[in-house]
Design goal:
single chain; 294 residues; alpha/beta; Rossmann fold; GMP Synthetase, Chain A, domain 3; 6-stranded mixed beta sheet; 9 helices
């Protein structure tokens, strides 16, 4: 490909609910990361691959940086710091509809310690606050550049892609042209289920939920795939909420998740869901490992 082809790994970091996953999905033109209005929706590093004729960018979406209160939170912060130690460039995403806060200052300080070059991405440009807020965000660190974008409307995204590619070094194409994510299929399917739980439940339930996909079995004619998964919660009361009266909540979760799964697999899906209690799983390293948080 010669010296004109550029490639690299780019971490997307920021505090919870600034729109990191929405930005990733919009950049790729395809959903690879679940989104919700709940903080700490993203728990793992999520890789999304943007392949262009002259470049390939491997984005690494990360959990929102926050003060951890349990083992799961500590795992999530290890995911962020692990990403920062293994990329060529960082996009620090902030919420342009709000003035900078302590969380933004904390993250900027952490980023400065890594010495990884970074771009400041001011998201929610369609709701952008006063100009002095932008100036205050820029004062948080030594950024290569600032780009105002809207992950919802698409504002500024082509400018962002152009500027980050300029900062990447000449390099190889790491993934095939048609590959948009390297996440395992069972992980993606489990995330679809967890996203619907986040959409339909409130209060403490969403954060206490984990999903394990145990089986993905295409039928012989390939027109139908059987999927079996378990939703884990920490309390019997949470199990009752997930199941709902007469099983209505669980059916709604399954119906919504199945739509996403059928679009991904391009076939009909027979989804079977169970709900089980794994007491205080967020506080136990062994439970985290068994649920794939390793």
């Amino acid at each position: 490909m010669g010296d004109t082809y550029r490639s690299g790994f780019v971490a997307i970091i920021g505090r919870p609910n600034v729109g990191k996953s929405t930005l990733l999905n919009r950049l790729l033109g395809q959903k690879v990361a679940i989104v919700s209005d709940k903080p700490q929706t993203t728990r793992n590093q999520i890789r999304g691959i943007l392949t262009l004729p002259h470049a390939q960018v491997v984005f690494v979406d990360t959990p929102g940086m926050h003060k951890p209160f349990h083992c799961l939170g500590e795992y999530m912060m290890r995911e962020v710091r692990g990403a920062l130690g293994d990329v060529d460039l960082v996009l620090l995403v902030v919420d342009g509809s709000q003035r900078p806060g302590e969380g933004d200052r904390y993250i900027a300080a952490e980023l400065a310690d890594t010495k990884v070059p970074s771009l400041l991405v001011i998201n929610k440009g369609d709701k952008l606050g006063p100009a002095e807020w932008v100036t205050s965000y820029e004062a948080l660190g030594d950024f290569l550049d600032t780009v105002v974008v809207s992950a919802v409307t698409g504002q500024g995204l082509s400018d962002l892609v152009g500027k980050l590619i300029q900062r990447l070094s000449p390099g190889p194409q790491y993934y095939p042209d048609d590959m948009v994510s390297d996440q395992p299929l069972k992980f993606l399917l489990g995330e679809y289920i967890r996203e619907k739980v986040l959409e339909l439940t409130r209060e403490e339930v969403p954060h206490a939920v984990a999903v394990e996909v145990e089986e993905v079995s295409p039928r012989d004619d390939r027109d139908l795939t059987d999927i079996r998964a378990t939703i884990y919660v920490e309390r019997d009361s949470q199990k009752g909420i997930i199941i709902g009266k007469g099983g209505r909540m669980l059916r709604s979760i399954g119906q919504l998740a199945r739509v996403e799964m059928e679009a991904l697999l391009d076939c009909q899906v027979n989804l079977q869901l169970w709900v089980k209690v794994k007491k205080d799983w967020r506080e136990q390293e062994s439970a985290l490992r068994s649920l794939g948080y390793t």
